[in-house]
Design goal:
This protein has about 110 residues and is mainly beta. It has a four-stranded antiparallel beta sheet, with no helix packed on it. The chain has a four-stranded antiparallel beta sheet with strand order 3-10-7-4, with no helix packed on it.
Length: about 110
């Protein structure tokens, strides 16, 4: 099993080879394109562990952008007691679906 932990816009995600992953929506990523992530914090391959300080410079991850989707509705409810103030709003967060293609290691 091969996996890596990657930093994307300040959030860490676990990438497993040939698996799908949902990250927060990024409008700069176009559908069907391949993207390389190079901010790899941790890498595991066949019992060998590599930890970056802060990033591993010789490892990159190639992913394919599959589609942009909307998640489940989140409800935001605000209330102040004894004031008659209640506000109920909701929204659906946007996500980008990725498929991990491969891990590129430089020797």
């Amino acid at each position: 099993m091969i996996y890596a932990i990657v930093n994307i816009r300040g959030i860490q995600f676990k990438f497993i080879e040939n698996k799908y992953l949902y990250i927060p929506f990024n409008c700069e990523m176009e559908l069907g394109t391949h993207v390389m992530f190079d901010q790899v914090l941790f890498f595991y391959k066949n019992g060998v562990i590599k930890i970056g300080s802060p990033f591993l410079e010789k490892i990159k991850i190639k992913v394919e952008i599959l589609k942009h989707v909307r998640g489940n509705k989140l409800i935001i409810f605000k209330k102040k007691r004894r004031k008659g103030y209640k506000v109920k709003k909701g929204f659906k967060p946007k996500f980008t679906k990725l498929k991990v293609i491969n891990f590129l290691e430089k020797k």
